[in-house]
């Protein structure tokens, strides 16, 4: 599955629960990366989600960005 095909929270949750190790890299500059990340947050309407559901979106962003997992308790939409 391509990342562009992830359209629902359930799909994100399934992606996150996968057991296969995955490595990501982003092609482009920092501004392009931030625009992509913002677009993903808007696509999933992160600010309108409940805390647990928004957490799925944040964990997805953290996995793709390489943001440290120990910081996930501080991150929220």
Structure report:
The protein is mainly alpha-helical and 77 residues long. The protein has helices spanning 9-16, 30-43, 51-65. Helix 1 (9-16) packs across helix 3. The chain is globular. The model has no long low-confidence stretch (mean pLDDT 77).
Approximate helicity band: 40-55%
What is the subunit arrangement here?
single chain
Please mark out the parts with pLDDT under 50 across 5 or more consecutive residues, or reply none: none
Average pLDDT over all residues: 77
**Main beta-sheet strand count, sense and barrel state:** none
How big is the Rg? 12 Å
- What is the succession of H and E elements? HHH
Total helical elements:
3
What structural class should be given to the helix and strand makeup? mainly alpha
Bin the strand percentage: under 5%
Outline:
This protein is mostly helical.
Salient structural properties:
77 residues; mainly alpha; 3 helices; globular
Give a topology summary.
Elements: H1 9-16, H2 30-43, H3 51-65
Helix pairs in contact: 1-3
